[in-house]
Each structure stands twice: as structure tokens, then as C-alpha cells.
Amino acid sequence: MSLEDIVSLAKRRGFIYPSSEIYGGLAGVYDYGPLGVQLKHNIQNLWWSSFVSAWDDMYPIDAAILMNQKVWEASGHVDTFADPLVECSNCHARFREDELKTKDKCPNCGKEHTFGEPVQFNMMFKVELGPTWGSSEADEGNYLTADIQVKDKKGQVVSSFKIKENERHNSLTIYDKNSRTYLRPETAQGMFANFKNILDTVQPDLPFGLAQIGKAFRNEISPRDFLFRLREMEQMEIEYFVHPDEWEEAFEQWRVGMTTFFKKVGLPANMVHELEVPEADRAHYSKRTIDFEFDFPFGTKELAGLAYRTDYDLKNHQEKSGKDLQYRPKDGSAPFLPHVIEPSFGVERLVLAVLCASYSIEPVRLDDPTVTLDDESVTAAGRIVLKLPADIAPVKVAVFPLLKNKPELVKKAREIYKMLKDELGEVMWDDNGNIGKRYRRQDEIGTPYCVTIDFDSLQNNDVTLRDRDTTKQERVKINELISKF
């Protein structure tokens, strides 16, 4: 199985589409199709039930994407949320320096020794709120030049710079820097910024957690590998606040919990690895980090992270905002700043890992008259099957009338479809093509069970129930059908 196999399946069956594809797409941005939306929601719902609903000390929050720019100054993102950028002096292509396979050869034009010294490129998307002071854009093929002077209050020039001809810039915007903010690069800071509100309104006992699912944005230098490295993504994050002396116990509790969750979504234990991140590679806020890595088709890469953030965030926000963010124990003991354990999951990386782990090719008999290689769900090696856990499969059951031109079969099948739809929700109707092709279509999108209504069903009030993974079929009474799921 290759990444191209996953990309092809995702597009063909309506899981994932390139964003704005009719205009050539946009690097690092993807849209979810109908099946992808349901798969993503099922994964999110399983995460929510596992880590929020099942816990007595967890509180949900939904912070805004836009926040005061001072939040990001206090968090350290303005100064440190950066990757090393290099530019080829020949073709002017730009790359993330630490991910180049060959440091002295441009992968775009092939020229050697064309990279200068790396510069730190901040990955936050800048946003100007309200009207800007002015802007200028050149027509297609043209470019701008300018001499810019910076003056003090007395009108004296204190610095200047030029936009040169060879830089080929085609737009210039001038704005009030006080209107600047950012699209959030993580959901965590919205929870830290609301910590005082939670203390004042909920009055929780320690330990307790804040949980959030939401969008994050990162202006990646080189987005790549389908859903792995994106510019727009969703995160599922928890900030779990603990007494400073109890962080190790909480850290281990979350490590075990994350491992259990990966099993729930169908990731084999031998494909998930724990990496203790050395100090030199940890984020600026972390005193201990474990990266959970997954064996993707393009290599073993980070899937999720567990970080001990100490009191870094609360301490900085308390200092910069001037607000008291200390927790005051209800027993009257001395107030203190809690420390934080952060389990963090990227939704898209988890979706990609689930698709990769569940993708399989099962052998079929090519002499079977229902099997043809023009069927997209069949390759020369066999039938494509997504062995998704039933809890997260986008379709739980598919219902087929044996023949769509027999009104009595269609009527009975519709009755059963409605019964299952009312009970299970995620049920699909399919009456197109022969039964073999219908089975394989459902196999390819991960549907665990198929129900076929035939002429015997009219006489005996039973149906054929077919299992995706074993392909075994059994006759089941209609009044016993729901108990099978």
C-alpha cells in the first residue's frame, strides 16, 4: 500500500477532496467529502466520549480562532514559532532547511550550492483587523519597487529600506500594527486565556481539564504528504491542570489513555511507537514530551503528542496580563499556579493513520462472474477493503434489495432500511449493480455489514447478513436484526 493508493481511494469514494480543485487546488488545504465528514466526526465523537464525557473533572470549551495579539506574544509564539527557511539563489524556490534530503542541492532546479544561510520563518498567519491604511497591487506580470523611510515623531529618518526590482514583489500593504493579530496556530492558548473565567464560574477542584476541538492554522513552508502536513487543520487538545508535585502521575495516566485510544480507532500496536523527545528537540514550553509516532507509507512520523508544559503558559499570561491566575485551594492553603499536562491530537493525521491502518487487499476469485477488473474496488491483487472499527465506520450498515425492478422487494427493503436508519443513523441504501459489486463498494468504504432482502425474505421475514471482514453470510430474522449491530 502506498500513499497514492490512499489518496486515490479518498478522492474516488468521497472521503477527501483537494480544496478548490476546479481552480487548481491550494497546497496544504483539503476538503472533506460526505464519507470523510462522517469518519472524522466519528473519530472526534470517540475522542470526546473517551476523554471528556467519561471523566468527572473535564470541562469543554470552544475558544475563538482570533484573539488579542498579546496572547501570542505572551505564549512565545511571536518569537519562537518558526522553522528554518532557505531559498535557492537560482530558481528562488523556498524550502524548510531541516527537511531537505540533500542540503547542497536544490530539489526544484537541481543546481548545487545555491542555498544561503537559513532564516527563521514564523508560521503564524498574520491578520489585519479592520480597514488597513492602504495597499497597492501590480497587474499580472508587473512588479513593485519602493523606497521606504521610517521617521520618528520629529520627522527625522531613523531607518529605511528598498523593495528592489529583482525581488519581483507584486503587492504592498501598509497597516496599523496595533490592528495585527493571527490565525491561531494551536487551540491551547484559548484555554489558558480563559483559565481565570473557568476558576470564577465553574470553581473546579484540582486536578481538572479543559477540552477543545477546533481549527488551527500554520503557514507551512512545504506542506506535503496529503493530510500529514497542512496549513489548515483541526486539533483535539486537552489542558489538564495538576498540582506541581503530581505531574508525573498525571502524565503516566494520560500516556496510558492515549495508547488505549489508538487501539479504539483501529491502529495496530506494532504501528504506533513512543518517542521520548530529547531536551534539545522539545518545544520551548515543554519539560517532558512523548511523541506518538505512526508507520505512515512515507515513513514513521509524529501522530500525536503528550507534553508537560509546567506552569509556563499560566505564568507568562499572568505576568503579561497583570491578572492573578493562581488556583486557590478550597481548604484555605496557599494559592499557586497549577502545572499542565497536554495530550494533543491532530485530527487530519489521525484520519490519515486510520485510513492507512485499515486499508487492505483481500484475494478474490477472478473466475467469479461478479468480479471484473473494471470495478474500481478490485485490483489484480484482490478486493480493496477498509477494515474500519464499527464505532468509527462512516456507514454502519448497507441495505440492498436483491433486484431494484421488483416493487415487492424494494418495499420490504425500504421498511428494513427505515427501521435500521431510525436505530443506527449511519445506514446506506444501495440498489445499483449486481450484489457482488455492491458488496465490494461497501467493503471499500469500510461498511462492516450488508443486509440483502430477497424473495425468501418476503416469505420467511428474514434477510441475508454479510460480514465485511470474513465475507460470511447468515440468515437473520428481521426482528433480531438490530441486536446484531
Quick recap of the structure?
The protein is an alpha+beta fold and 485 residues long.
Please, what is the CATH homologous superfamily of the largest domain? Bira Bifunctional Protein, Domain 2
Tell me the number of helical segments per DSSP (H or I, 4 or more residues long).
Answer: 12
User: Distance between the terminal alpha carbons, to the nearest Å?
Assistant: 30 Å
Taken together, the total number of domains comes to 3
CATH topology call of the largest domain = BirA Bifunctional Protein, domain 2
Helix content: 25-40%
CATH class of the largest domain: Alpha Beta
Explained architecture:
- The chain has three domains: 3-75 and 184-357, BirA Bifunctional Protein, domain 2 (2-Layer Sandwich); 78-139 and 160-181, no CATH class; 378-484, 3-Layer(aba) Sandwich (Rossmann fold), CATH 3.40.50.
- 27% of the residues lie in helices and 29% in strands.
- The protein has twelve helices and 26 strands.
- Strand 22, helix 10 (407-424) and strand 23 form a beta-alpha-beta unit.
